[in-house]
Description:
The chain is an alpha/beta fold. The protein has twelve helices and eleven strands. Helix 4 (150-163) packs parallel to helix 6 (190-198).
Amino acid sequence: xxxxxxxxxxxxxxxxxxxxxxxxxxxxxxxxxxxxxxxxxxxxxxxxxxxxxxxxxxxxxxxxxxxxxxxxxxxxxxxxxxxxxxxxxxxxxxxxxxxxxxxxxxxxxxxxxxxxxxxxxxxxxxxxxxxxxxxxxxxxxxxxxxxxxxxxxxxxxxxxxxxxxxxxxxxxxxxxxxxxxxxxxxxxxxxxxxxxxxxxxxxxxxxxxxxxxxxxxxxxxxxxxxxxxxxxxxxxxxxxxxxxxxxxxxxxxxxxxxxxxxxxxxxxxxxxxxxxxxxxxxxxxxxxxxxxxxxxxxxxxxxxxxxxxxxxxxxxxxxxxxxxxxxxxxxxxxxxxxxxxxxxxxxxxxxxx
Length: 353
């Protein structure tokens, strides 16, 4: 890792114009990482641009300069490209617009902490043991003796708080607490980060969460699930981003194996978000069955499609009790992949558990 840090430092010094890319549907880690790089490169006298295929949620507007992201660029205009927190090359979605983006024509530094990373960069700094990509960037800056300003410290804290669930997830190690403390010492505004990420929820978003929780189910094999459709979002005058955070509330059900939230978005896709508190469940593997990825305890996927509900009726003999009918007509889903396949109504899908 130190050799990779040295190579990255050389590229930082050589480049005059740098592009920082965040992944699609940006969260606090990818944005915090890109903003930390942006302000650091600016302080080094570089010309820097920011790019993301999707709009930035208002909850991240507290990050200084975050409104500077663009959706179009000429990658050949840059000396260096830094991609942050993209678990695979397709996570930027820019490869669809610029097929040669990762061809090597322009050096790419791939900064990430996902086990699913496909090492698409010229330099791949991927550390699965880092709780967030911003933790990795903190290590990089510290190793290279790059000064961390209060603005950069706040951006790095944003990624840490996002990926550790406000320092409450299982990946909140002693290292995370130590780095968080250092960033606070450097002027990082931890209170502003915590407030915007976890203590500020608009009314329309709370209504979306209410709809999700209203439909919450617990299967016989311990899978907590809920769905929300685009029709629901339209009725609530909300967007798909307003589902952000509710899956963590769903994950609080005692005794559950894992939690899945399925929601439609404005682009005709279905997004699946997974969470678990157990050590014997690998959600990155499960999400991979649907073309997604992530971490062992927090993962997800996105695929084209819509959510459909099936209602079945059955005529039973007179005198049969309701509980007997349920026992005869409800078949427990023994395979979580089968459960998701049925919910999604995927045609001709063949998934292995």
